Amino acid sequence: MHRQGHNAKRPSTVIRPLIDSLLIVGGVVSLSKSMRPRVNLWIEHDGEVVLSDWRVSLLEAIAETGSISAAATKMNVPYHRAWDKIREMEDGLGVKLVETQTGGAGGGGAQLTPDGLEYVERFRRFQAGFKEQVEHRFQETFGK
User: Fold this and answer.
1) Cβ atoms 68, 85 nearer than 8 A
2) Is the pLDDT reported for residue 65 higher than 60?
3) N or C: where does the chain have the smaller number of CB atoms within 10 Å of the terminal CB?
4) For residue 76, is pLDDT > 60?
5) Is the pLDDT confidence value at 90 over 50?
6) Whole-prediction pTM
7) Helix, strand, coil shares, percent, the chain, to 5
8) Long-range contacts: 10-15, Cβ < 8 Å, 24+?
């Protein structure tokens, strides 16, 4: 007879929290107020992520700050990670999204190209309303 390992969770310890989070209201099961649906939307090209909420936020931070370094700081990621994500987006989309200027008297900088601005706008337009629709369907399906 096979015994579960010492650290294996018994089914009752996994299912019990789920049961505890359900409330019986007038004979109908409804979810407790602490449960919320989440949605994470992204666009892939050939199986690789090219646009996502986080990546578009990075582009928006570059547009706002005029700097990849400042955008990385704002997004709480290392500079090289920000650059890696920019390159991944550009490679996957086949267009330049960010134009950089090297140092000088005023220092370097970065700005979005017209394609970069267009992809930000298109993604935000595509994304608009998804969270609201998910919340509506959640309420419709699971009750209030």
Assistant:
1) no
2) yes
3) N
4) yes
5) yes
6) 0.72
7) 50, 15, 30
8) none
What's the pLDDT score for residue 130? 87
CA distance 94 to 73: 26
In this predicted structure, the answer to whether residue 53 has a pLDDT above a threshold of 60 is yes
Looking at residue 38, its pLDDT comes to 84
The predicted model gives 11-19 an average pLDDT of: 51
Cα separation, 12 vs 9, whole angstroms: 8
How far apart, in whole angstroms, are the C-alpha atoms of residue 135 and residue 130?
Answer: 9
CA 60 to chain centre: 14
Interior/surface letters 90-123, b for 16+ CB within 10 angstroms, e for the rest: bebbeeebbeeeeeeeeeebbebeeebeebbeeb
Q: Where are the beta strands (DSSP E) in 66-137?
A: 98-101, 109-112
Q: Token digits for 24?
A: 């019986």
Mean pLDDT throughout 105-124? Answer: 91
Report yes or no: 131 and 34 within 8 Å, Cβ to Cβ: no
d(CA 72, CA 97): 16
